Amino acid sequence: MTEPVSALAVSVEINGEQVELEVPARRLLVHFLRDDLGLTGTHVGCDTGNCGACTVHLNGEPVKSCMLLAVQVDGARLTTVEGLASNGELTALQKSFREHHALQCGYCTPGMLMSATALLERNPRPTEDEVRYALQGNICRCTGYVNIVEAVVAAGGSTP
Ligand code: FES
Ligand code: FES
């Protein structure tokens, strides 16, 4: 009888750096990021794919990292919220969140930023409706969404 595989090698680019690690075959990507790599900006709100707090970019597309195994990203390119700012300089979207008071407790913010960044990359001037549609997988318990939507629209250079 074959022994079950307990650990597998994962090689992945994260925020521009190549990472190679052995991980338990059933380790969720979000726990790989947070617990194995210390990238705690990616949050766990539900662990069931509902809240979006764990959103990261997988090869440029937003995904919920609680819905993937770490071994599934072998050979891929990941960006987490820690990878948005460059040399300490916040992105226009991050600055817009600050200027528009688009967060309260901040728990949802990393996921909001990752989903909105992906939107702005494919649609640099989204309308309010397009922003709301793009953020439908991200839940915020605090803000009522109004300032978040305004921040994303403003970062895109459109009029709210
Ligand atoms: S923790 Fe992944 S969607 Fe909520
Ligand atoms: S700011 Fe608290 S959950 Fe969104």
How do the strands and helices of this protein lay out in sequence?
Elements (H helix, E strand, L loop, with lengths): L6 E8 L2 E8 L4 H8 L18 E4 L2 E4 L12 E3 L12 H8 L9 H14 L5 H7 L11 H10 L5
Parallel strand pairs: 1-5
Antiparallel strand pairs: 1-2, 3-4, 3-5
Q: What this model shows, in words?
A:
By secondary structure, the chain is α+β, with helices and mostly antiparallel strands. Helix content is about 30%, strand content about 15%. The N and C termini lie far apart (about 65 Å). The model has no long low-confidence stretch (mean pLDDT about 95). One FE2/S2 (inorganic) cluster (FES) binds near residues 45, 47, 50 and 66.
Q: Descriptors for this entry?
A:
single chain; elongated; Ubiquitin-like (UB roll); DNA polymerase, domain 1; about 160 residues; alpha+beta; 5 helices; about 15% strand; about 30% helix; 2 domains; 5-stranded mixed sheet; binds FE2/S2 (inorganic) cluster
Strand residues, percent: 15-25%
Low-confidence stretches: none
Number of H- or I-type helical stretches: 5
What is the number of E strands?
5
Shape: elongated
CATH class of the largest domain: Alpha Beta
CATH topology descriptor of the largest domain: Ubiquitin-like (UB roll)
| Count of individual domains | 2
User: Which strand order do you get reading across the main beta sheet?
Assistant: 2-1-5-3-4
Q: Order of SSEs, N→C?
A: EEHEEEHHHH
Bound molecules: FE2/S2 (inorganic) cluster
Major sheet = 5 strands, mixed
Rg over C-alpha atoms, rounded to the nearest angstrom: 16 Å
**Alpha carbon gap, first and last residue:** 63 Å
